[in-house]
Amino acid sequence: MNRGLLSVSHLQALPLSLTLLMFLVFPIAVIIIVSFWDYDSYQLIPGFILDNYQYLLTSSVTWQAYLNTFKYAISTWLITLVLGFSIAYYLAFHIRTTRMQTLLFMLCTIPFFTSNIIRMISWIPLLGRNGMVNSFLLSTGLIEQPLEFLLYSDFSIILAYVHLYTLFMVTPIFNTMMRIDRRLIEAARDAGAAPWQILLMVIVPLCKSGILIGSIFVLTMVMGDFVTVSIMGGGLHASVGLIIKNEISLLQYPAAAASAVVLLITVLIMLMVMFRLVDIRKEL
Asked: Rounded to whole angstroms, how far apart are CA atoms 271 and 54?
């Protein structure tokens, strides 16, 4: 009987296992193999060389790209965490009716009905040298010269990331807040806890799983992104994803594969650190 149930369980898991093998394990295995190949201007040369990794890890361009990528990822993560937590807290604890919570949450998702590129491009006429922000500040006399840092800068890149990914932080935090037993908050209030003590000692610890899931979404997407840096950086800023994209454009597939493997290992290390800080299996 138990053997029969075990066979049924294996059959049920078979489609998912095959899907993961075909679309996750196999592509990663191919990328790892190709990363050790040689290449010239015309073809890939199968083999086993470490030149791609040696050049990658000893290049100052690579290290600068990683520094830029970490700067974008950490800045975006901090801002989206503060914004996402604040929005989720307002929706979960200050909006009393489920209908209004759903309506406001849907309002937050409306910008996501358009593509990321359209939403990024919409910032350009707003932040440009002759854009609406500079025109307003000049007309009011607050500045004498247009602000150059508003567009094609680190500021515009991080601003676009925050615009694109804040909802990915709001959603998991909001879900964990909605599952908090309100009697715990009432008990803390009856025990004389101040509002900030309830927030820091009751709500934040109970939202760790949501914060972790949102952090994974934001950090992994920023680490692998190249479109935002390309458009909002104006070609003046580099990231790891943009380096990989340029190597693919130049048909340097082994070099791009080596960069992808190093990026994958970096992201996995970040995820391992986060999972060490929060045991998500206990929190869910």
From this structure: 25
In 3D space, the residue among 105, 271, 277 whose CA is nearest the CA of residue 208 turns out to be 277
How does pLDDT run across 180-224, given as a tens digit for each residue? 988 998 999 988 889 899 999 999 999 998 999 999 999 999 998
Q: pLDDT tens, 214-261?
A: 999 999 999 989 999 998 988 888 899 999 999 999 889 999 999 999
Short-list 210, 273, 267, 222, CA closest to 84: 210
- Count of other CB atoms within 10 angstroms of residue 183: 9
Give the N- to C-terminal CA distance of the chain in Å, as an integer. Answer: 31
Q: Give Cβ neighbours of residue 185 (< 8 Å, ≥ 6 apart).
A: 198, 202, 203
Structural domains present in the chain: 24-57+239-277 (no CATH), 65-237 (1.10.3720.10)
